Amino acid sequence: MVTPAGRNAFREFLRTEFSEENMLFWMACEELKKEANKNIIEEKARIIYEDYISILSPKEVSLDSRVREVINRNMVEPSQHIFDDAQLQIYTLMHRDSYPRFMNSAVYKDLLQSLSEKSIEA
Fold first, then answer.
1. Is residue 122 part of a domain?
2. What pTM was computed for the model?
3. Residues 57 and 51: beta-carbon distance below 8 Å
4. Which helix H or strand E contains 2, and what residues bound it?
5. Which parts of the sequence belong to the RGS domain (predicted)?
6. What is the count of structural domains for the chain?
7. Cα(84)–Cα(70) distance, rounded to whole angstroms?
8. Tell me, what's the pLDDT at 4?
9. Helix runs in 1-122, H state only
10. In this structure, is residue 55 part of a structural domain?
11. Phi, psi torsion values for 92, nearest 5 degrees
12. Contacts 24+ apart (CB under 8 A), 88-93
């Protein structure tokens, strides 16, 4: 999650597991946290909500009802931290479920191979 290459490889793996929306949601939340303009925060929060929180979204992430209710209440006046609990829940899900499988995948082994080849060349 720290490096762009690592995120891209993990995202590629998640795509094969039909759970790429988890990474996309996590990245969207990270971008929202960097925003300071209230109008842009509101717009980005609405987009994130429609894309990942709404039960009508095809990319809906799996959240418990408590977190979903808190988000629904806070959408009246969203801040850049409105999705923090949801982001943590999705990060934990990826960390416990998807990431261990990723570590054993061909995608991860290919990433390690390419990184070791680059370090040898340097």
1. no
2. 0.86
3. yes
4. none
5. 1-112
6. 1
7. 11
8. 83
9. 4-16, 20-34, 38-48, 65-74, 84-93, 99-103, 106-121
10. yes
11. -60, -40
12. 89/63, 89/64, 90/22, 90/25, 90/26, 90/61, 90/62, 90/63, 91/1, 91/26, 93/22, 93/62
Q: Which amino acid is at 10?
A: F
What CA–CA distance (Å, rounded) separates 16 from 43? 30
CATH of the domain at 69: 1.10.167.10
Is 120 part of any domain?
A: no
Task: Specify the amino acid at residue 29.
Answer: C
pLDDT tens over the chain, length 122 residues = 778 878 888 888 999 888 999 999 999 999 999 999 999 999 999 999 999 999 999 999 999 999 999 999 999 999 999 999 999 999 999 999 999 999 999 888 888 888 888 777 76
